[in-house]
Design brief:
The protein is α/β, with parallel strands linked by helices and 382 residues long. The chain has two domains: 199 residues, 3-Layer(aba) Sandwich (Rossmann fold), CATH 3.40.50; 167 residues, Rossmann fold, CATH 3.40.50. It contains 14 helices and 13 strands. Strands 3-2-1-4-5-6-7 form a seven-stranded parallel sheet, sandwiched between helices. Strands 10-9-8-11-12-13 form a six-stranded parallel sheet, sandwiched between helices. Helix 7 packs parallel to helix 11 and helix 10 crosses helix 12. The longest helix has 18 residues. It is elongated, with a radius of gyration of 22 Å.
């Protein structure tokens, strides 16, 4: 039986990385893999639930120090996986020099953020492959590793579970025009723009309502701002919801409004598309324009262009034929292109690629200090 270890900072039940780890673990287990999961920084609110189905390892209680790195390497060797799939997990990267070279470490890039690119590049010589879910992440990650290592990057879009996210043909029966925002309530996702956008939409579309799913530092500010503008009766702040509940809310929505400034892939966009929701999303080159065909499966708007988002929503509301065509196109395109089964097929093919690394054996603890020092110097020079 093949064995895999998925490493992440915490085992949560909400968020793109959390969803990716859970769905990947579940699908690999169905295919006969012995699946282990490791939380490095925080145990997470889904750790106990995950432990019912997978062997889960909690390193979060150990204080941050070189000793924690050494203990993590020991834990890896007690598991002895064939593959390590690390997800923004710096601790696992720092343990790389101590890990048996027969194990294939693969780093999944999840965010278009220099901090996470820097994590993915740690001890890059020892990384077997990188997975970028979009061409934008692949291209921008090039700057963080040497050119000769670029050939180790593979573009594999994330897959979505179609048993959770699927359409319901009742949108034409809804009594109001339902707009949905799903995501972190912070400026990185454009949540600060929602009051301005929806105030104009509400004035133009009297039967429009906005549902907000998610939490973050702007939640109280947004609540106050909607009340100040007299929109509180047309807003539903749902907080964080389970994936199943989020999918249910999506199926009762017409438009996904996401004026985001930062995405690595945009899982919520594809999830909404699979539910037949038309995405009105920021155009992020190499990322969101890889998910949405402009004017066919959704509308892409320049980031921070509030009027552009307003006009796009009004356009969809004002043309029922356009809405139904886009809804069906979005659903079909997402199901065909971003299936979980296709993603796992490509992952398994990747796992069997010949190992082209030349890093020698695993380091002793003194050797780790030497290699780590070189790593820190390279990072400082970069």
């Amino acid at each position: 039986m093949s064995r895999i270890l998925l490493a992440t900072t915490e085992l949560n039940w909400i968020g793109g990385v959390a969803s990716h780890v859970f769905e990947t673990s579940s699908e690999l287990k169905k295919r006969g893999w012995d699946v282990h999961c490791l939380a490095s920084n925080v145990r997470g609110d889904y750790f106990d639930e995950m432990s019912r189905n997978f062997a889960c390892h909690d390193m979060s209680a150990i204080p941050l120090s070189p000793k924690k790195v050494f203990m993590t390497a020991d834990r890896v060797h007690s598991i002895m996986p064939d593959v390590i799939l690390t997800n923004n997990c710096a601790l696992m990267h720092y343990a790389m020099p101590l890990i048996d070279p027969h194990i294939k470490p693969i780093s999944v890039l999840h965010s278009d953020d220099s901090r996470f690119y820097a994590i993915g590049a740690l001890f890059s010589e020892r990384i077997f492959r990188w997975i970028a879910p979009t061409v934008g992440l692949e291209a921008r990650f090039h700057a963080f590793i040497e050119q000769r290592l670029h050939q180790r990057i593979r573009v594999i879009p994330h897959g979505i579970n179609r048993t959770k996210f699927f359409p319901k043909n009742t949108k034409n029966e809804l009594s109001a025009f339902q707009i949905l925002f799903v995501g972190f309530l912070g400026e990185s996702k454009g949540a600060d723009l929602l009051p301005d956008i929806f105030q104009k939409v509400a004035a133009a579309i009297p039967d429009s309502f906005l549902t907000i799913v998610g939490d973050g530092p702007l939640r109280v500010t947004l609540d106050d701002e909607f009340k100040k503008r007299g929109l509180q009766n047309r807003i539903s702040m749902r907080g964080t919801t389970s994936p199943d509940k989020t999918a249910e809310i999506m199926r009762a929505s017409h438009v996904l409004l996401l004026p985001t400034n930062l995405e690595g892939f945009g899982m919520v966009i594809v999830e909404a598309m699979m539910c037949g929701v038309v995405p009105v999303v920021s155009r992020l080159p190499g990322i969101t324009d890889q998910l949405i065909r402009q004017g066919e499966s959704g509308l892409l708007i320049a980031p921070k262009d509030c009027n552009g988002f307003v006009e796009a929503v009004k356009r969809i509301h004002g043309d029922s034929n356009l809405f139904h065509t886009m809804s069906l196109t979005a659903q079909t395109a997402a199901a065909e292109t971003f299936s979980l089964d296709s993603m796992i097929n490509r992952y398994e093919a990747l796992f069997t690629e010949p190992d082209d690394r030349d890093v020698g054996g695993k380091r002793s603890i003194p050797g780790w200090y030497t290699e780590a020092t070189v790593q820190f110097l390279r990072k400082r020079l970069r």
